Amino acid sequence: MAERGSPPGWDFNPSSWSQRLPIIGLALLGFGIATYLALFQLGIITTVWEPFFGDGSRVILTSRISHILPIPDAALGALGYLADAVTGAIGGRARWRTMPWIVIIFGLAVGPLGAVSIMLVIFQPVLFDAWCTLCLASAVISVAMIGPAMDEVLASLQHIRWAQLRGRSLWHAFWGVGV
Amino acid sequence: MWARVASILLGIWLMAAPAILGYGEPANSNDRIVGPIAATFAAIALWEVTSPIRWMNLPLGLWEILAPMILGYNDLAAILNSFAVGAALALLAAVRQQRTQRFAGGWSALWRPKLLEEHQPAGDDTIAEPDEERKVSAARK
């Protein structure tokens, strides 16, 4: 039996709070970790927690690559997680059809952030031969968010596609006009 | 489920293997690149709606089997590890996820209008398509 408010042909509603809150929670956890690492990179705190890899975290967090942009990479990560949490929280239980635009921005924020995290994990040992516990934890969080976020994106894309097939405006469906 | 978990563990193993088995370049860098990517694909494929992502580990597994020849490994442990992990990743990619939920035809419904239409509630306006096509789809039901 399908849950009330589910997209047509779905057994559950991907925009329900029980689906979204765990992702928002993960994003906030990632935000906390990334903020802590950014504070170290900005010199506001002078030591960084590293239980397993000796000097690894320091090597990674002070590397050339981590400071290639105007702001340290962990600060960028923190902003990314914040964007995930905010776009995950905006809108009600029907947002897969009332606000497809926010669902798609949410999907884009979660997907590419996960990809960048994995890239950074790859750079760590290959370029510097060092590992960083909290950077790895952050990558795990990013990756864990991708799968559960995509069901909502699919529901919104199906909704937009169906509106288009019925000869309605794709533009209106995207912005949720007239729902 | 078990196949995805096993693939994640294989990916993590590839990240740690150079240190544990003590092999150097080029196997070292290759496995530290392939490992996290394979683990990521498997982790995304854990969820039913993104399960097709599991197939990304088929080319990755095949690459691990070919890498010793193409990159010229000379460490026996690295070569055997690459063969074994590669074969396992490729085989696990083909293990199907048990389906417990419906997603109105999934991702392929986005480019197959009929599939999407099948899942719309009765009474909703149907696709603006030629009558003949509609008859065919009605006859099939």
Number of structural units classed as domains of chain A: 1
- How many beta-strand segments of chain B? 0
Q: Regarding quaternary structure, how should these chains be classified?
A: heterodimer
Q: From the helix content, strand content and strand pairing of chain B, which structural class follows?
A: mainly alpha
Q: What would you call the structural class of chain A?
A: mainly alpha
- Overall radius of gyration of chain A: 19 Å
Largest sheet of chain B: none
**Unreliable stretches of chain A, pLDDT < 50, 5 or more residues?**
none
Task: Specify which chain pair forms the largest interface.
Answer: A-B, 29 and 36 residues
So how many helices of chain A?
7
Overall number of structural domains of chain B:
2
Instruction: Encode the helix/strand succession of chain B as letters.
Output: HHHHHH
End-to-end Cα distance of chain A, whole Å, is 25 Å
The gyration radius over C-alpha positions of chain B equals: 21 Å
User: Alpha-carbon distance between the termini of chain B?
Assistant: 33 Å
Write out the CATH superfamily name of chain A: VKOR domain
The total strand number of chain A stands at 0
Question: Within the CATH hierarchy, at the fold level, what is the topology of chain A?
Answer: de novo design (two linked rop proteins)
SS strand fraction of chain A: under 5%
Query: How would you sum up the global shape of chain B?
Result: elongated
Total of helices of chain B: 6
Description:
The complex is a heterodimer of chains A (179) and B (141). Chain A contains 7 helices and no strands. The two termini of chain A are 25 Å apart. In chain A, helix 1 (17-41) runs antiparallel to helix 3 (73-89), helix 3 packs antiparallel against helix 5 and helix 5 runs antiparallel to helix 6. Chain A is mostly helical. Chain A has helices at residues 17-41, 56-61, 73-89, 95-98, 100-128, 133-165, 170-175. Chain A has a single domain (26-175), classed as VKOR domain (de novo design (two linked rop proteins)), CATH 1.20.1440.130. In chain A, 67% of the residues lie in helices and 0% in strands. Chain B has 141 residues and is an all-alpha fold. Chain B has 2 domains: 2-93; 107-140, no CATH class. Chain B contains 6 helices and no strands. Chain B has helices at 2-22, 27-44, 57-71, 76-93, 113-118, 131-140. In chain B, helix 2 packs antiparallel against helix 3 (57-71), helix 2 (27-44) packs parallel to helix 4 (76-93) and helix 3 (57-71) packs antiparallel against helix 4 (76-93). The relative contact order of chain B is 0.14. Residues 127-136 of chain B have low confidence and may be disordered. Classes of the chains: A mainly alpha (179), B mainly alpha (141). The A-B interface holds A 7-12, 114, 118, 121-122, 125-126, 139, 143-144, 146-148, 150-151, 154-155, 157-158, 161-162, 165-167 and B 15, 29, 32-33, 36-37, 39-40, 43-47, 49-50, 101-107, 109-110, 113, 116-121, 124-128.
